Each structure stands twice: as C-alpha cells, then as structure tokens.
Amino acid sequence: MATFMDVHDGFVGVTEAQLAEAHQADLDIQATEGVHFERAWLDPESGKVFCLSTGPSKDAVMRIHERAGHPTDQVYEVSVEA
Amino acid sequence: MATFMDVHDGFVGVTEAQLAEAHQADLDIQATEGVHFERAWLDPESGKVFCLSTGPSKDAVMRIHERAGHPTDQVYEVSVEA
C-alpha cells in the first residue's frame, strides 16, 4: 500500500458543502479499487484541491477520481514523509 | 490562525534523511513567525514536496521556507477541509 497526494485545479469558489459532496463521491466508490481517501483540502481562491490517500497504485487513485467526476492527472506517490 | 498547503519542486532523488533535515530547518525557526509545520510529503521521482502548516499568513509561511533555504511561491490557504 502506498501513499498519494493529488492535486485538482478549477475549484474556485467551491463551498465546504460542495467539497464534502465531491469527497463523498470518492468515498462511495473507493473500496472498489482498494483506495482510501484520508483528507482533502481546498483553497477556494486559487481553486486548488489537495487529496491525501492510500492505495495500491497511482492509476487506482486516478480511476476513482475519474469515476467520481473530478479527474486529475496530477497524482504523486509520496513515498517519504517528515 | 489559518491552514496552508505549499508545494516545492526540484527535490528529485531526495532521501528520507535529507527531507528530515530540510523539514528540521523549518521547525528550528518556525516559531519566529508563529508558523507550525505539521507534515511534509515527498515524491522523490517527480521532486514534489507538499507541506501542511498552520500560521498567521501565507507570507509568514513563505518567509520561513525562504530563510530555511527552500523558498517557494506555491503557498495555498486551504480554508476548507473534507
């Protein structure tokens, strides 16, 4: 199991309720790929969202995000932590 | 107090010990700006580092990173979390 940070753009002005809804869409299907999303952080001014997850592969994380309706190709395997 | 995620590029091939050393350089001086770095994640393949912190302002976070020797202008105030 590896740890991933991914980045989404374009979430300008998104509210807490909207982020929770988008995150829930990931949570609802994450088990189908063995992925677990831990936390998501949003900067509504720049529209950046950062998601921390664990899972079997970068592709698995990308597939969950794509099926949940918010695809991104910015997924990084963060194998080192401090 | 706000929460921030910042991103560094160029840490390709950096080891766990080197990340710990860079992170410690932030910790050593963070109190001078009222910043607290919580966690840092590294993808040594792409060279991306993500740092999660709390502090009074984006500029305070930038000043600590600059004085610690690893400046970045990619600092995002993540005011919403899921």
SSE topology sketch:
The structure is a homodimer of 82-residue chains.
Chain A: E1 2-8, H1 16-29, E2 36-43, E3 48-55, H2 58-67, E4 75-77, E5 80-81
Written account of the structure:
2 copies of one chain form a homodimer. By secondary structure, chain A is an alpha+beta fold. Chain A has a single domain, classed as Alpha-Beta Plaits, CATH 3.30.70. Helices cover 29% and strands 34% of the residues of chain A. Chain A has 2 helices and 5 strands; from the N terminus they run βαββαββ. Chain A has helices at 16-29, 58-67; strands at 2-8, 36-43, 48-55, 75-77, 80-81. Chain A has a 4-stranded antiparallel β-sheet with strand order 2-3-1-4, with helices on one face. In chain A, a hairpin with a 4-residue loop joins β2 and β3 (48-55). Chain A starts with a strand and ends with a strand. The mean pLDDT of chain A is 98. Chain A binds chain B through residues 3, 5, 7, 14-16, 19-20, 22-23, 39-46, 48, 50, 52, 76-82, and chain B through 3, 5, 7, 14-16, 19-20, 22-23, 39-46, 48, 50, 52, 76-82. β5 of chain A pairs antiparallel with β2 (36-43) of chain B.
* CATH first level of chain A: Alpha Beta
- The succession of helices and strands of chain A, N to C, reads EHEEHEE
The biggest sheet of chain A, with number of strands, parallel, antiparallel or mixed sense and barrel status, is: 4 strands, antiparallel
The percentage helix of chain A is: 25-40%
Numbering strands along the chain, what is their spatial order in the largest sheet of chain A? 2-3-1-4
Q: Helical element count of chain A?
A: 2
List how many beta strands of chain A DSSP finds: 5
> What does the average pLDDT of chain A come to?
98
- Name the CATH homologous superfamily of chain A: ORF SCO4226, nickel-binding ferredoxin-like monomer
Rg from alpha-carbon coordinates of chain A: 12 Å
Assembly of the depicted chains: homodimer
Outline type of chain A: globular
**What are the low-pLDDT stretches of chain A, counting only 5+ consecutive residues below 50?**
none
Q: Assign the structural class of chain A, choosing from mainly alpha, mainly beta, alpha/beta, alpha+beta, or little secondary structure.
A: alpha+beta
Strand content of chain A: 25-35%
Most extensive contact: A-B, 28 and 28 residues
CA(first)-CA(last) distance of chain A:
18 Å
Can you tell me the number of structural domains of chain A? 1
